[in-house]
Amino acid sequence: MPELPEVECVVRSLRPWLEGSRISAVEIRSRLAAGGDPASLCRFLAGRRIASARRRGKFILFELAPGFCAIHLRMTGRLLWNGGTGPYTRAVFELDRGRLLLDDVRQFARIYAGLDLPETVAKLGPEPLELTAAEFRGRLLARRGRIKAVLLDQRFLAGLGNIYVDEALHRARIHPLQPAGTLTARRAEGLHGAIVEVLSEAIAAGGSSISDYVDGMGARGAFQLQHRVYGRGGEACPRCGAAVRRIAVAQRGTHFCPRCQRLQ
DNA sequence: ATCTATTCCTGGCTGC
DNA sequence: TGCAGCCAGGAATAGA
Questions:
Q1: A4-122, superfamily in CATH?
Q2: For FRET with A200, which of A57, A172, A190, A251 sits at 20 to 30 Å CA-CA?
Q3: Phi, psi for A102 (deg, rounded to 5)
Q4: Contact A106, A177 (CB under 8 A)
Q5: Helix (H, G, I), strand (E, B) or coil at A200
Q6: Residue A188 above 80 pLDDT?
């Protein structure tokens, strides 16, 4: 599922085609994708120029002239340049140099557009790759919940999802149920480093393609081959050899090594 | 305020 | 082979 690294790769692959382009028309094929009001979304977007295309958390954000368009791929959404339309095509953006498709089997993906930045984007926490370890530690201290739930909260930190939270906690040797505010400065710093490391490596590998993810050109990522615990319940921990456990935390499948990651 | 449970959605998998 | 039933989960929403 697209998390920060996947969305970053989508944006990088599409940016050359999108920036400076004018949206001539938008066709919405799924009412859900447009948040219930396809007509006004199309009306707003038609004729506007995309000044820049960038990522914010897990959102793909177009700065328009004027206004904003934000796209969230959720679980199975794909943004594809000049692909063929199919039964799962939910929206078609006609642009100067081609067309951009939003495909999504499960109809969770959403498109927002308006003169103001959508509220959900405005309320996002800081970017993990732009935050210092000290700032990260400070934010952690203010939280009461379990570390996994806190890291999944987009208002705390923008862009982490289930895969990269499990992978970062394993690298930092922190148990997913550890209360966030109890991490020592040293361990919080280690977690910050693990987050930066895993996200950077994942971006370099083109993201994780587990089932649906591909970038804007249809290319799969390779980082799923480097997952150490995510999706590996029952397998040997690559660090110590103990069997990776799978539990539920915050209604999410959670993978961790019971030997390397101990509650403290 | 803060945390937890539910809902949305459907392809793929499991088990009978 | 067929099919019912369950599972995956990001974020909005409702409930505690």
A1: MutM-like, N-terminal (3.20.190.10)
A2: A251
A3: -105, 110
A4: no
A5: helix
A6: yes
pLDDT in tens, A207-241: 999 888 999 999 999 999 999 999 999 999 999 99
* CA-to-CA separations, A87 to A23, A101, A200, A218, A220, in angstroms, rounded: 23, 12, 34, 17, 21
Asked if A72 CB < 7 A from strand B, the reply is no
**pTM for the full model?**
0.96
A145 touches strand B (CB under 7 A): yes
Which residue's C-alpha is at the least distance from the C1' of B6? A251
Return the CATH class of domain A128-256.
Answer: mainly alpha
A29-55 pLDDT, tens digit each: 998 898 878 999 999 999 999 999 999
A183: its two tokens:
């991490």
CB < 7 Å to strand C — which of 51-110 in chain A?
A: 57-58, 72, 74-75, 106, 108
User: What span, in angstroms and rounded, lies between the C-alpha atoms of A149 and A176?
Assistant: 8
The residue behind tokens 């954000």 is A61
**Distance from residue A85's CA to nucleotide B3's C1', rounded to whole Å:** 42
The domain limits of chain A are: 4-122, 128-256
Asked if residues A5 and A208 have their Cβ atoms less than 8 Å apart, the reply is: yes
Q: Calculate helix-pair angle for A4-18, A185-204, nearest 10 degrees.
A: 40
For tokens 């999108």, what's the residue? A18
